[in-house]
């Protein structure tokens, strides 16, 4: 009754492009956040998390 069926529904194959797109967006957003933290405008801002982590202010 339960367990593997004769005709399994494909899950990963149709979801593959969405998984790849999600990983790409996650990577690009993380890279953009890192670039914004190191930008000249927010480099010495006290709300900058890089200052709390111990990076030196420029």
UniProtKB/TrEMBL annotation:
GO terms for cellular component: proton-transporting ATP synthase complex. Signal peptide: none annotated. InterPro entries: ATP_synth_F0_jsu. GO terms for molecular function: proton-transporting ATP synthase activity, rotational mechanism. This is ATPase, F0 complex, subunit J. Keywords: Membrane, Transmembrane, Transmembrane helix. The keyword ATP-binding does not apply. The keyword Transport does not apply. It holds the Pfam family ATP-synt_J. The chain crosses the membrane at residues 12-30.
